[in-house]
Write a structure and sequence with these properties.
alpha+beta; 5-stranded mixed β-sheet; about 160 residues; 5 strands; 5 helices
Length: about 160
């Protein structure tokens, strides 16, 4: 098996990144939204995060040889509690069959290294509450809950 490589994404990687949108959408588990609504949200969110911006950001892909396995996007963000400059990791996805092999950990390490290189000490992320696998993964990496958004369908 070839070595896992983490590199900055390029334009040619965008179809792969977008191809992971259904994987991300499936993890949401939002019974008060239709699958189509969640999928459109995820597609639009990926496009928004990958669009050109003045906000410092980086997208990395993980590969073994020529096979792309996952990606992470990290960008600047002001901390909501302290107001200090920091980063957020709005997107992390590993394709089915490559999960549990250290790909996500390697991508997170790249996001953390990028954040440190900016001179920031905080890296924020959000995960759908119903994504227990994702929450567990992030907690194993040392991330802690800071706020939790709750919602109720009332009509």
């Amino acid at each position: 098996m070839s070595t896992l490589t983490i590199r900055l994404a390029n334009e040619a990687d965008l179809p792969f990144i977008r191809s992971l949108s259904p994987t991300l959408a499936a993890k949401a588990g939002l019974s008060w939204h239709t699958d189509d609504v969640v999928q459109k949200f995820q597609d639009d969110y990926i496009d928004a995060m990958m669009a050109d911006t003045d906000v410092p950001n980086a997208t990395y892909v993980a590969a073994r040889g020529d096979e792309l396995l996952g990606f992470v996007h990290v960008r600047g963000r002001e901390d909501e509690v302290s107001g200090e400059a920091g980063a957020t990791m709005p997107l992390l996805a590993v394709k089915e069959g490559a999960q549990g092999l250290g790909v996500g950990q390697a991508l997170m390490a790249a996001a953390e290294d990028w954040t440190k290189a900016q001179g920031w000490r905080l890296l924020h992320l959000e995960v759908f509450w119903n994504n227990a696998q994702g929450r567990h993964f992030y907690e194993k990496q040392g991330y802690e809950a800071e706020t939790i958004n709750l919602i109720k369908a009332i009509g």
